[in-house]
From TrEMBL:
Protein name, as recorded: FecR domain-containing protein
Record-annotated FecR protein domain positions: 114-205
Record organism: Labrys neptuniae
Gene3D superfamilies: 2.60.120.1440, 3.55.50.30
Assigned keywords, A-Z: Membrane, Transmembrane, Transmembrane helix
Amino acid sequence: MTRTPTRQTEPGQERQQADLALSDAAIDWLVRLHSGQAGKADHEAFAAWRRQSREHELAAREAETIWHGIRLAGDKVQRNARAKLTRRAVLGGVAIGGLAVAGSSLLRQHLFADHSTGAGERATITLPDGSTALLNGDTALNVSFDAAHRHLELLAGQALFQVRPDAGRPFVVAANGGQARAVGTVFDVDIRSQEVVVTVVEGQVDVTAGAGPGTGVLAAADQRVRYGTGRQPFAAEPVDAESETAWRRGKLIFNQRPLGDVVVEIERQRRGRIVITSARLQSLEVTGVFELADPESVLSTLEATLPVKVTRLPFVTILH
């Protein structure tokens, strides 16, 4: 079983972890209640759970707000016309596009990576200096350490790094033409469909990308920096780092995430490629909370709440 890196906690951190535990428990309740298998006893048990304390009630309300966002997102886009595609057109586009993407991913992971995970796998890598890298599913990572440098390259996927301080050897993670530089910190690097997102959990990270001087952006805890291939990074944005890295705790939390990014997340947890047939669908916003171990439930919910049709074929799933 993969374990996330452990560290000692201060009283304030212990309180935060307790709140996160209640939040996760509330989300688990809602997943159960909306599974289609919950009965009257389950609903009564959840009502009793939330009455235990004010903190339980707040966690329940927060989880319900997030869950309700799925329906709100669906209502927002249901007014749009649904694009029509013939089966022949879909199959023709997928035959080349889907297999090319799959082949590229396999090539990067299995021929070039020092460390990699398959779909639905996670792994904790202990690096030569004692730092750790937690790899999400379908992730590939190269490592190059020497007496003067600590350099890593994220070829695909997502990884969270817990860095041991070493002022003489900066810790650098390169991904899609940019890099995140840290001395001692905890941060996440996520290669999404259109951009790379660096999220800082602890400490500070300097993110550079694009050409020309003065392109670095400094991000602190609970901030993220985004950049696209060949483009300079955007300014640091405030985020809830614990929610952004909820995959560590077995959750997928989306807050108005483009469908294109959500598909990337799903692909990391299941075998086979997922192809979206139009740019309009790529940009649909998704809000919700899901179990990391049940990616099929995400697809089912998307089909039920958004103007999206899911067609499952051998090796390829089509969203149209």
